[in-house]
Specification:
The protein is mainly β. The protein has 3 helices and 35 strands. The chain has an 8-stranded mixed sheet with strand order 3-2-9-5-6-7-8-4, with helices on both faces. Strands 22, 23, 25, 26, 29, 31, 34 and 35 form an 8-stranded mixed sheet that branches. A hairpin with a 2-residue loop joins strand 22 (about 335-340) and strand 23 (about 345-350). About 40% of the residues are buried.
């Protein structure tokens, strides 16, 4: 068991053992799920390479590349131990200790000027490199920390007690590729639970993280979906800005999620399926952010008898694929209000609203969702105002509300800026479970934060409507105002201030 998460009531295991079964049992399934990441750090002597190290990158990671660093054994890694050895610019090798935690060892090693802390386990198995919630990068160490098990580290310490040793250190400060692999065995546990994955079994997914700034700690997790067994949701570190290539087991079903701690959480709207041999693209955190609802994650508004449950996550990102919220972000100002006619029924600031005691007859309703970033620093979607008009009556079963959804597409760079003549696509779609046809959208564009509006020409493009920007040279942002109506006379209007930037 990896001990790093015990303080948080979690247990993380390095090895899991399964007893093979005789024959097959109906309804029983055994599965294996691996995420294999590009190594953050590899170390090697002239005769041995230490691979697959548990590593916690520093707040400022070791720069990319290969270098030689002298390793020095410094006992249990106390400040006194480190003071007795010259570890400045070197790798401080220490033993795990009951009296000195890894965080204390790391702080002392960083204060002594070490480049890397290498902690050797004194017990069985591998050692977690950091006392932190699994996968969290909220509180990284001041220097890169790696661990060795006793079988690897014991001989190294013995050698270091005889003389100093140079280690070849290869660092990857960002994870540029990962493998997400899964395999199921139906009916029982095989005697040999191994399988071979060929390149032709994989799909490539080019993942882009497009927050407007690099600061902040992000996470991401690809959860496998199966009727036979469930995956454990564990957030894994991801960049707020950057690119990564994911190699995914083809012909499996996945649900993807990403977020920035304390700011936003994003979830794929649909179960994802990447056929083997294909290439797909996924983008997180970028513009255009706005309210987006979906059945994914319980985010579908609906009515049952006299009660409406209306989740309205206000910060869906980048196109049509994600539902996004700011539930853990106390800097935003979100307000959701439900009206029957002109009468306000109830309101909420939690991006969801539950209203009971509604009249049984079919009546007109108006849902207003007002999202402002408040003090949440971000130059885009500084304010969105969305209003849905629809009719609803009591039903004997849960029924989706006919709230038209708006999605946007624009080719923006990593900083969220588009070309001044870029194409912009607007797509209006019915909520899952509703069938009314939606007509042509109306679009207005402003280049001065809404002081003046222009109505560009639209041309039909697949499921959406496309136009070309005509931004003046002095403009820095694009604001949008969109309306749409369906065949049942349900409507939506949405205004997004500073939807994205211009370059």
């Amino acid at each position: 068991m990896l001990p790093g998460d015990r303080d948080y009531g979690l247990e993380a295991y390095d090895s899991v053992w399964a007893l093979p079964t005789a024959g097959k049992a109906a309804g029983f399934a055994f599965g294996a799920r691996f995420r294999l990441e590009q190594p953050a750090l590899t170390l090697g002597t002239k005769t041995k390479t230490y691979k697959d190290l548990p590593v916690e990158r520093a707040a400022t990671p070791l720069p990319a590349g290969t270098r030689k660093l002298t390793a020095v054994f410094a006992g249990e890694g106390t400040a006194e131990d480190l003071a007795r050895h010259d570890v400045h610019g070197k790798i401080a090798v220490v033993r795990r200790s009951d009296s000195v935690g890894i965080k204390e060892q790391a702080a002392a090693a960083a204060a002594a000027g070490a480049r890397v802390l290498l902690v050797v386990n004194d017990g069985d198995g591998r050692l977690s490199p950091w006392d932190n919630i699994t996968g969290s990068t909220l509180h990284p160490p001041a220097l890169t920390v790696a661990t060795l098990d006793a079988d690897q580290g014991g001989p190294l310490i013995d050698a270091l007690q005889r003389s100093r040793i140079e280690l070849t250190v290869t660092s990857h400060p960002t994870t540029d590729y990962v493998y997400d692999l899964v395999h199921h065995w139906a009916g029982g546990v095989p005697a040999d639970p191994t399988w071979t994955v060929k390149p032709s079994d994989l799909a490539r997914v080019d993942v882009s993280f497009r927050n407007y700034r690099r600061e902040g700690q992000a996470y991401e997790f690809l959860k496998t979906m199966s009727a036979d067994w469930d995956d454990v949701w564990v957030p894994l570190p991801a960049p707020t800005q950057g690119h990564r290539t994911d190699w995914v087991a083809g012909d499996s079903d996945w649900l993807d999620a990403a977020g920035i701690y304390g700011e936003t959480g994003q979830l794929s709207m649909d179960v994802l399926h990447y056929p083997a041999g294909t290439t797909s693209k996924v983008s997180w955190f970028g513009p255009i952010q706005r309210p987006r609802m979906s059945a994914a994650g319980g985010n579908q508004p609906g009515r049952y008898l006299d009660t409406m449950l209306v989740p309205a996550p206000g910060w869906g990102d980048s196109g049509a694929g994600h539902v996004g919220d700011a539930y853990a972000n106390f800097d935003v100002d979100d307000r959701e209000t439900l009206y029957q006619g002109d009468q306000e029924l109830d309101w909420s600031n939690a991006e969801k609203l539950l209203v009971a005691g509604l009249a049984p007859e079919r009546l007109p309703y108006r849902l207003v969702v007002d999202n402002s970033r408040g003090t949440w620093a971000n130059p885009y979607s500084t304010h969105t105002l969305t209003e849905w008009n629809f009719a609803s009556a009591a039903t004997d079963e849960a029924t989706p509300l006919p709230l038209i959804q708006l999605d946007y597409g624009v080719d923006a760079d990593a900083a969220g800026r588009a070309d001044r003549h870029a194409d912009l696509t607007v797509t209006a779609s019915p909520m899952e479970g509703t069938t009314a046809a939606i007509g042509k959208v109306s679009l207005e564009v402003s280049y001065d934060d809404g002081a003046a509006w222009q109505r560009p020409d639209l041309r039909h493009n697949g499921a959406g409507w496309r136009t070309a920007l005509r931004a003046p040279r002095t403009a820095c942002f694009v604001s949008l105002r969109v309306t749409a109506r369906d065949s049942d006379d349900d409507t939506v209007s949405q205004t997004i201030t500073r939807a994205f930037g211009l370059r």
